[in-house]
Amino acid sequence: MSENGKPGKTTADFWFDPLCPWAWMTSRWMLEVEKVRDVEVRWHVMSLAVLNEDRLDELPEEYRDMLETKAWGPVRVVIAAQQKHGDDYTGKLYTALGTRFHNQGEGPTREAIVAALKDVGLPEDLADYADSDEYDTQLRASHQEGIDKVGQDVGTPVIAVPGADGEQVAFFGPVVTPTPKGEAAAKLWDGTLLVASTPGFYEIKRTRTQGPIFD
After folding, report:
1. Other Cβ atoms closer than 10 A to 203
2. Which of 9, 29, 113, 163 could form a disulfide with 2 if both were Cys (CB 3.0 to 4.6 A apart)?
């Protein structure tokens, strides 16, 4: 039974920043996993801006500029929607934002955020929270909850699932493109859980040779 009491379902907690294209790819894979395994995703926000705020001087100028000018708005809107309208909207709004930001190439503009809010039936004025720190405490708490499970030297996404001993197994990634579907999604899920749950296992990595393929 999952943590939220639904028999036969394993809860996979997923932390995302809506701005990250690689987290977006992984999130679409998780929706495929829900179709082929007894898994239910529970969505949470984390923030690339928060993650990197103490090391901005070490980052490339272009990435630093993105964090300072674009990264706060979308995640603040998602946390405001969650706080004001409930957890059920977190994943829905993420899908609407990600579809516009990434698949449709609109980017994290106010116009795209407003359109995404309309897509899921939320008030358009929630877009105003992009420039508000009203829910930053809750945003930072959600971010920290995910980071506490894997450590500071990761990015988004973070996934956590119940382990065999009842304690959560958490990991960053997987980073993958294009999104695996069907049995390929299931095999990646099974393999990811296998390595992530191995005591003492920390990392597999290779150089990325292509960017995200949105489909």
Report:
1. 9
2. 9
Rg of the chain (C-alpha set):
17
The structure tokens listed for 76 are 């603040």
- Helices marked H in 99-206 — which ranges? 110-119, 136-150, 182-196
Looking at residue 68, its pLDDT comes to 93
User: Residue 99 has which token pair?
Assistant: 């579809």
3-state secondary structure of 195: helix
pLDDT of 7:
58
Residues belonging to the chain:
215
- Residue 150, SS3? helix
Question: How many other C-beta atoms are found inside a 10 Å radius of the C-beta of residue 17?
Answer: 23
Neighbours of 57 (CB within 10 A): 6
For the stretch 175-199, pLDDT in tens is 999 999 999 999 999 999 999 999 8
Q: Answer yes or no: is pLDDT of 91 > 70.
A: yes
Dihedral, CA atoms, 189, 77, 108, 89, nearest 10 degrees? Answer: 40
Tokens of 162: 């119940």
* pLDDT confidence tier of residue 6, bands split at 50, 70 and 90: low
Does 124 score more than 60 pLDDT?
yes
Closest to 34 measured CA to CA, from 11, 5, 16, 17: 11
How many angstroms from the chain centroid is the CA of residue 33? 15
